[in-house]
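Changelog-adjacent note: as of this version, every example in the card shows the full chain rather than a window. The one below runs 237 residues end to end.
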Amino acid sequence: MTDINKYKVKILDIIDEISNVKTLKLEKPDGIDFREGASFRLEIPREGKSLTHDFSINSLPSDDYISFTTKFSVRKSEFKKELLSKTIGDELLVSNIESHMGLRYEDRPIVLISMGVGVTTMLPLIRTYLNDKGNIPQVKSYTIALEGKRVFEDKLASIEDKEFSQAWLSGRKEFFDSLNEIILPNCIVYLVGSNEFLLDTIVKLRELGLSDDDIMIDMADKKKKVMFIAAKNHQVL
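Full-length structure tokens:
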């Protein structure tokens, strides 16, 4: 269910993670409710047309703030240029809070697969699992990112739990070459990355015997259905 209300919030903190990647902490509006792995729409109000962008929330509902992490590339969009100019205390608007990536407690292992900054979507899933393992026997996380460009590397490396592991892969070739070993029997896969990466990986996962129900992607049902249909005619180069 989507919370369509708009909430005015202030920026509480801006944290430099790695080069060109920042985490912003925002006020958490009173009364909002969401699951781990939620996304939201951030709006920068201005005269004329406001600027908007969707982000994953990497904080938990139990935190007293909402945080997200994003990359500011050399060729910045108009939204990213405007966001980069903001400072602590500035106001933004938050809306469209929804979750398509909540943990499934089905007595099955979970494999998290992400590209680059996409690991930010996995962070609240990992935290939730560590707080409540329930019927999840194991979680393995794999992220494609070059050394020096690995967001939350120290934070993830500090986790001491025998049922959780984080591995870093240097590129797509290494990832696809290793996919047969990465996928656990009877697992549920959570997948975050570019559309091309999603399509390539869905094709490969199907070849390994996973059903579409075993694959979680951060999209509403209609968009998810379109992605799975597109993957049927997609050729991995």
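Structural remarks: The first strand starts at residue 7 and ends at 18.
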